[in-house]
Specification:
Layout (H helix, E strand, L loop, with lengths): L18 H11 L3 H17 L2 H13 L5 H50 L2 H6 L2 H43 L1 H7 L3 H36 L2 H9 L3 H53 L5 H42 L22 E8 L8 E8 L4 E6 L5 H8 L7 E6 L2 E2 L5 H6 L1 E4 L10 H6 L7 H10 L3 H5 L18 H15 L3 E5 L7 H15 L3 E5 L11 E6 L2 E6 L1 H5 L4 H21 L1
Parallel strand pairs: 3-8, 3-9, 6-7, 7-8
Antiparallel strand pairs: 1-2, 1-4, 4-5, 9-10
This protein binds adenosine-5'-triphosphate.
GO molecular function: ATP binding
Protein name: ABC transporter ATP-binding protein
Organism: Paenibacillus pseudetheri
Length: 604
């Protein structure tokens, strides 16, 4: 799987307009084919109507004016105005259709991307930079809305205007038409060079913007802000941001300046054609072969010829840019989901207490460097199994494997005898309640955070869960009670309060399996007491796995597993482990011995 910093393809040549890509992109247009067809019909109409005013001008100059025919003049002027008005109205309708099609495609893509990212493995989010995900979700996908208008419609419109004008010019006078078209090849030459420059600049701008998003994400989030303040890194971070910002501004100025030069060169070429027409057309007029009206009509029409050629040549750049956007989005869509439902996956029985069995489980985050090796144990149904061990020994990893946040390399994990890989992910996770070390609450009210577990839970049930988690009294004493907003990640609450709310949330979900990672932050005695009581209630009659940092937490554990460096060092009940001269005894003596030392010290 490719994760991490996704690179904007380094070489322009990497993005090729191949058939597969076109088919893939056109699939997004498929649901809106009727609207797209309508746009094409409107384009045909407006491009044909656009020729008429020039022809009317010719008749005004050559007939209505010399013959002093006021009626004919009025008729021509009215016809010309009507044509312009009808074109204008069709244009308005087309703009609406353009917006409708492009916004709907953006809507579909954003939904698809969100759904896809929801299914990405945890490993993806631990590796990829947050700014990158946001850039792809927002600016890249939003950039697609310009693609339909700026690329697809523009392409067809220009082709239609170009061909209808060329036909009209040739029908009027083929010699003059050939002369007028003389300047056309001159447009093509600078385009290639220009496209390379703008491509490179666009790529660099995109990267800088991602970097900018990243800095904002990291330093202006709650935890990032605290980190920055505590280490007094404001100036350093500001300097870093300023540098990236300056670079992004410089690139954007260069990008638009490069465009200006291009337009200037094109404008120069555009003025060559009319001059040639005046020269040769004037000669033909003097010879009596052509009328003044024809020359004027010709020059007016010529403008319609150069505009599209100019746009079509620079459209090449836009097509490349659009393709790059699609490529960047497709890059995410093409990432392997890794953890998927097995084709014959079954739903786990709802609410039945079962045991969890690890058999020779080996797992590595990075290939060839196992984090867990040969883990085998049974967490008995309806009992508490405790995981203890030094920091980094692999306890959280074991619990993550039960939730199938990662898939194991070898061995098996079963629940009630069924391999978890044969269970649907949705049903598996619905049967597990997780209380993590760091409680994640979103910025909403306490009630909303609790309801995340069960939207249909009646109020009494919610209150009962909070009472059982020893947090109800605290909540009702807040000025807004259950409607109190908890702040980003629940910052307005203490660690102990947050963890009790998270226990209440799991109680509302009421699953038969509970995984609990005890908070490491030292809680005061009262908090610890209430959390312990809340835990006792939560774990009652559940198959539970508790990661304990304080051995006092797991007095009720029927089975203790000591993890050391990714392996099970020893296991058994408390008495058994204390009877051995092993890791547990050492941990026990260190924790309780330390407590005694501290007490002696205080007493002394
Ligand atoms: N997403 C990850 N990618 C790569 N390595 C990881 C990842 N998560 C954890 N690790 C590594 O795996 C090892 C086990 O980590 P784990 O979080 O399971 O330890 P732990 O026993 O729960 O630690 P603690 O008690 O401090 O929470 C550690 O060396 C850690 O650096």
């Amino acid at each position: 799987m490719r994760v991490g910093r996704m690179k904007f393809n380094d070489h322009e040549s990497a993005i090729k307009l191949n058939q597969a890509l076109i088919i893939r992109i056109s699939k997004y247009f498929q649901p809106y084919w009727r609207h797209t067809l309508l746009v094409m019909v409107i384009l045909c109409l407006t491009s044909s109507l656009g020729i008429l005013p020039s022809i009317f001008i010719q008749y005004i100059i050559d007939q209505a004016l010399p013959e002093k025919d006021l009626r004919f003049l009025c008729l021509l002027v009215i016809a010309s105005l009507t044509t312009t008005m009808v074109s204008g109205l069709l244009g308005v309708w087309q703009s609406y259709l353009n917006a409708f099609i492009s916004q709907n495609i953006v809507y579909d893509m954003k939904n698809q991307m969100y759904r896809h990212l929801q299914k990405m493995p945890l490993q993806f989010f631990s590796t990829v930079k947050q700014g990158e995900v946001i850039t792809r979700m927002t600016s890249d996908i939003s950039g697609i809305q310009g693609v339909f208008n700026g690329t697809v419609v523009s392409f067809f419109n220009n082709i239609l205007v170009l061909s209808s004008t060329a036909i009209a010019l040739i029908m009027m006078n083929w010699k003059l038409a050939l002369l007028g078209m003389f300047a056309v090849p001159l447009f093509i030459f600078p385009t290639r060079k220009m496209s390379q420059i703008r491509w490179k600049l666009a790529k660099q701008t995109q990267e800088k913007m991602s970097e900018e998003n990243q800095i904002i994400q990291e330093t202006l989030s709650f935890s990032g802000y605290i980190l920055m303040k505590l280490f007094t890194r404001e100036e350093k971070e500001y300097e870093g941001f300023k540098a990236v910002n300056a670079e992004s501004a410089r690139l954007q100025i260069r990008e638009s300046t490069a465009g200006r030069w291009f337009i200037m060169v094109m404008t120069t070429f555009t003025s060559i054609g009319p001059m040639l027409i005046y020269l040769y057309g004037g000669y033909l007029f003097i010879q009596g072969e052509i009328t003044i009206g024809a020359i004027i009509a010709f020059v007016t029409l010529l403008g319609r010829l150069y505009g599209p050629v100019n746009q079509l040549t620079s459209l090449y750049i836009d097509i490349k840019r659009s393709l790059a956007l699609f490529e960047r989005i497709f890059e995410y869509f093409d990432m392997e989901l890794q953890i998927n439902d097995h084709p014959h996956a079954v739903a786990i029985e709802n609410n039945v207490i079962k045991d969890i069995k690890f058999q020779n489980v080996t797992f590595s985050y990075q290939n060839g460097n196992p984090t867990l090796q040969n883990i085998s144990f049974i967490a008995s149904a309806g009992k508490m199994t405790a995981l203890v061990g030094a920091s980094g020994s692999g306890k959280t990893t074991i619990t993550n494997l039960i939730l199938r946040l990662y898939d194991i390399d070898s061995g098996s994990i079963t629940i009630g005898g069924i391999d978890i890989r044969l269970l649907t992910l949705q049903s598996l996770r619905s049967q597990i309640g997780l209380v993590t070390q760091e409680t994640y609450l979103f910025n909403g009210t306490i009630k909303e955070n609790l309801q995340y577990a069960n939207y249909s839970a009646p109020k009494e049930e919610m209150i009962n869960a909070c009472k059982a988690a020893y947090i109800h009294e605290f909540i009702i004493n807040l000025p807004n009670g259950y409607d109190t907003v908890v702040g980003n990640r629940g910052v307005k609450l203490s660690g102990g309060e947050k963890q009790r709310i998270s226990i209440a949330r799991v109680l509302l979900k009421n699953p038969p399996i509970i995984i609990m990672d005890e908070a490491t932050s030292s809680l005061d005695a009262v908090s610890e007491y209430y959390i312990r009581k809340a835990m006792d209630y939560l774990l009652m009659n559940k198959t539970s796995i508790v990661i304990a940092h304080r051995l006092s937490t797991i007095n009720n554990a029927s089975h203790i597993i000591v993890v050391n460096d990714g392996r099970i060092a020893e296991e058994g009940d408390k008495e058994h482990l204390l009877g051995r001269d092993g890791v547990y005894k050492e941990l026990y003596e260190r924790q309780f011995g330390m407590k005694r030392d501290m007490q002696d010290h205080t007493l002394g």
